[in-house]
Automatic annotation (TrEMBL):
Membrane topology: Multi-pass membrane protein
Signal peptide: none
Organism: Terriglobus roseus
Full protein name: Integral membrane protein
GO cellular component terms given for this protein: membrane
Transmembrane domains' residue ranges: 28-47, 59-83, 95-116, 136-155, 176-195
Record-stated family: Belongs to the TMEM175 family.
Keywords assigned by UniProt, alphabetized: Ion channel, Ion transport, Membrane, Potassium, Potassium channel, Potassium transport, Transmembrane, Transmembrane helix, Transport
């Protein structure tokens, strides 16, 4: 019981106490990074060197939506990175789920880029129907990505015995599944509002602000779980020391 609660000093752990099983670099990691790199190149405003000041001014005006899009895609990459360094799984389920995730990410880049170009006035004024379709495409891609994150964690949890999850890691994984599912559900809510209220399609994107309090709450849950497990481990260790 004690060994399942306490950490092995020779292992690497995340700040939340989750053992990092995927610190090595595999072909799956390499392939995933290539796809993310290609997705980032699709966000580039222009691959041509400006020939005059007018082209330079137009290029610089596009850097703000590019920067926002770049940041959001990097957050997706960071979520993917955390999953694979925590779980380190390479089974068939992981391969298929990761393949679907990368496919969706490549699709997600286009509405992501166009949405923020529109938001910063770089693509002209969109009609109500077109804005509705754009928001639904973006929010649908967003929701699919985070549901696939939840599925990857669920696939790891399914292998908890083989991966030798501690009680802390089991609890954290259940929290990760809930966190990613909740984040994805916010995207679904945006889709629902955009579909039912076409005139409010752009305003529906404000619902994405719910992600910050949701992530903060789930971070609190994970921290509380770790503190509870650490206290339990200390309580077991003290009588043995005596």
């Amino acid at each position: 019981m004690l060994r399942t609660l306490l950490h092995d000093d020779h292992e690497h752990y995340d700040s939340d106490g989750f053992r990092l099983r995927g610190l090595g670099f595999s072909r799956l990691d390499g392939f995933s990074d290539v796809v993310f790199g290609f997705a980032l190149t699709l966000l580039v405003v222009s691959l041509e060197v400006p020939r005059d000041f007018g082209e330079l001014h137009h290029l610089l005006a596009g850097f703000v939506p590019f920067g926002v899009s770049f940041l959001l895609l990097m957050l997706v990459w960071f979520g993917h990175f955390n999953i694979f360094r925590r779980l380190g799984t390479h089974d068939a389920g992981t391969l298929w789920l990761n393949g679907m995730l990368l496919f969706v990410i490549l699709f997600y880049v286009y509405p992501l880029k166009f949405l923020f170009l529109s938001a910063f006035g770089q693509s002209g004024q969109l009609e109500i129907g077109k804005m509705q379709e754009l928001v639904v495409l973006y929010a649908g891609g967003f929701a699919t990505i985070y549901y696939l994150f939840a599925a990857l964690y669920a696939n790891g949890y399914r292998q908890r015995e083989a991966l030798q999850f501690t009680p802390l890691e089991r609890g954290l994984t259940r929290n990760f599944i809930l966190e990613e599912s909740g984040t994805a559900t916010i995207g679904v809510l945006v889709c629902i509002v955009a579909l039912t209220m076409p005139n409010r399609a752009a305003t529906a994107c404000l619902l994405f602000l719910l992600i910050a309090p949701w992530k903060s709450y789930m971070g609190y849950r994970c921290g509380h779980l770790k503190r509870s497990m650490d206290a339990q481990a200390s309580a077991i260790q003290q009588p043995q020391a005596e």
